[in-house]
Specification:
By secondary structure, this protein is mainly α. It has helices at residues 49-52, 59-70, 79-85, 90-102, 220-231, 244-259, 264-272, 283-293, 336-341, and strands spanning 106-112, 118-124, 317-319, 326-328.
Length: 346
Amino acid sequence: MDTKNLSVPSRAQARMPGKNHPHRRPNSGISGVVHENTRHDTRFTVIGNHLAQHRELSLLAIGLSVHIQSLPTGAPVDIKTLAKRFPEGADRISAALRELEAHGYLRRSRERTPGGRIVSRTVSCNQPGRHAEGHPDRRPQQQERQPQPRLAPQHKPQPQPGHSTHITHPAPCPDQAPAPGPAPDPEPTHPAHPTTPGPPKERTPRKPLPAVPQPSYKGPELLQAATDLLAGLRRADPDLLLSACDTAHLAPGVAAWLERDASLTAVRHALISDLPPEGMRRPAALLAHRLITQLPPPAPYRPPTPQSEPTHIRHPLQNCDGCDRAFRSPERGRCRACRGTVPVAA
């Protein structure tokens, strides 16, 4: 007990300012992100946190939506253009565009130009659900109720004893509209008790394909060549994979082109040139439209060429008068061997 410990400080030391936090060590840094913001005056795009911090969108879809919103109006945003701009492939970019379309940040529709081409129209939405008109998936927001002003209470006169009081209400003026009352409560969209499901709705029948040109002579060889040409279009574009029924419907139209002296290469180029970059829902309808609108005129008249006479004439068989052998000759007589042995008269 009488031994002194020289290592013990004489008094408790005060905590340093950097040590006020029990879990933070000096010179260890701060966990998490630290923002160093600078105000933008030009070349900036406003992006909402509902997009930047979306829980269901992928990182590629969020970045792609930010890039599309930063582009000017009219800039191309098809899959081929985006695949050239970014290192991601066309498949990943197409999947990201479908994510944005499913969550309302993108709307794509197909329209037909006066020249017959089908183009895709893309609409980018920075706040899905705000513009309700013109889109079936969006519902108009309910109007907020405006609180009615409270009127000061009016003191009614007290009836005197021995006198009857008759209160008359003034009739409303015809020029004045009645004061608007409180708006009624909106009816619940979902019924309290489940109802029995009704009959299933009938599906709208699919629009038939337009009638294609018909050849004047449907030869089997001509139709087979047209069928082979239509079946080989899938090698140029996977979207041109036609069914057997669509191929049988389009084959006479291709045969009409071939009948008008159009080559197989010319017909194939007319069908697969300038295809829409976003794909096709009904490729057979597009091919039928092109077979009708771009049908070439009939081939020019060519006079038949005169057939030349055959150079070799095949004579009938004759029996030789000397040796009775068969030989070919226009007339009866002796064969070549017998004619050489018979002496010629002087």
